[in-house]
Amino acid sequence: MASVDSQTNFPPPLAVASPDRAVTRHLFTVEQYHEMIEHGIFREDEPIELIRGEIIRKLPIGNPHAATVNRLNRLLSKLIHDDAMISIQNPIWLADSEPEPDVAILIYREDLYASRRPGAEDVLLLIEVADSSLAYDRDIKGSVYAEAGICEYWIVNLNHATVEVYRDPQSDGRFATVITARRGEILSPLKVAGLSIEVNAIFAMSPT
Questions:
Q1: What is the DSSP string of 16-35?
Q2: Which of 50, 64, 135, 149 has its CB 3.0 to 4.6 Å from that of 98, i.e. a possible disulfide?
Q3: pTM of the model
Q4: Is the pLDDT of residue 1 over 80?
Q5: Quick check: 181 and 162 in contact, CB under 8 A?
Q6: Residue 43: per-residue pLDDT
Q7: Strand pairing of 152-157 and 123-130?
Q8: What residues make up the domain containing 190?
């Protein structure tokens, strides 16, 4: 592990008091999170993300989850226009969080975001693929995305072969419009010009 500059002070991730007192959590800013990665406290490829100031270890990705992300990447790559781009499991910089959604469709930039992380204003669509993480993606990540003003958020629900579509983000952490798309239906994101995708194709289903 790389040594940490003596001038850089990070609070401990978790401070535990005596058994009769509550556990105290220290929350990190996005800037502190970046510094910890730069100093080697966490590897860049470590399966973690910053959610509401807490460093969260992501669940292992199973084969159906990975295959669905790959399928989405292939499908969307063929459909989006040159004014948008796809980002797979890469970070998005929000106020107190830096999630790594399975798929993000972003406004295209010539440098492909080499000079800065994409923020909420760059996002056209976020997609999470969920099976065991379904409740977390709905309740925790969903509220983070809504508060940040993400215009549209999809959860590909592997448990029920549906796509949950969340639109109209509110500052209180909810989406005012929620739609569940099922087999045989077609999805068209609000902000991605010309994009329509069949629910069947996301789950590799044959048409009914």
A1: ---TTS--EEPP--HHHHHH
A2: 50
A3: 0.85
A4: no
A5: yes
A6: 85
A7: parallel
A8: 63-202
